[in-house]
Specification:
Helix content: 25-40%
CATH superfamily of the largest domain: Gcn5-related N-acetyltransferase (GNAT)
Radius of gyration: 20 Å
CATH class of the largest domain: Alpha Beta
Strand content: 25-35%
Largest sheet: 13 strands, mixed
Number of helices: 10
Distance between the termini: 27 Å
Order of helices and strands: EHHEEEHEHEHEEHHHEEEHEHE
Number of domains: 2
CATH architecture of the largest domain: 3-Layer(aba) Sandwich
Length: 283
Amino acid sequence: MISELNKHEFCKLRHFTDLYRNIEVKAVVSGLNPGRIYVDDAANITAALIWVKGQNGFQLVGDARSEPFLNELEDFMKEHIEPELLRLNIHTVEVGVADESWEDVLHHMAANKELYSDIQHVFTLDSDQGMTEHLRHPGSHEGYASQNEVVRLLELDEALLKAGKFNNLSFLKDKVSRFWDNMDEFLEHGFGYIAVQGEDIASVCFSAFISDQWHAIDIETIEAYKRRNYGARVARAFVEECRIKGIHPYWDCSPDNAGSIRLAEGVGMSLNFDYRVYWYNLS
């Protein structure tokens, strides 16, 4: 019977997620990043559906031949999960998988709804040498000129997050809280940089998910400040910090996001692997 695990039981999934290259599921199973886990049989787990809060989506891990998932997941989704997604104003069920072996389970989940799919790219760094070649920039806290205006590059820390001196500080706090239970958790385990123009946060790049020495990147530039290289600036600062600390940056994006791919390649990252994402609409 399908059921939800308590957080202290998440560790039961580590032998599954250790086999996966996606660090988001590892971050949830470790308890570091928020999420929920549904398993096929709590007494004998062979497969799990993992809700990754930061992605507003799920990932399937384990044995794609799980009988409870092949036979019961449709009803469980309708009775327990889909109503909750709608309460959160989420109208699409998105599920990442390692390969197409999960298609039978996914078609069962979607029932009579149309199931769509695409791939996601994951970029990583090949070597320290490749990183260094792309990361020649001034010190992290120096100002730099952008279209005749001075832009400051600042590291995220407790003082900055609690100062409240930026016009759009709520944008930054909302970004971080999507991936972390609270600011203290983020500050203890993650790091990041912002580009500031005047009193506005123009762009941010920070640790969204963490698994061991891997940090998944979340990056966003405010619409009004796009096409000014602010994203490239914070990305370079983040990846340079990774190099200094011996951390492996991990960049996940869709194939049609040319800007994100260009940024990843611009800081010396290259395509490591693809995984498949399926989705269906609730309305």
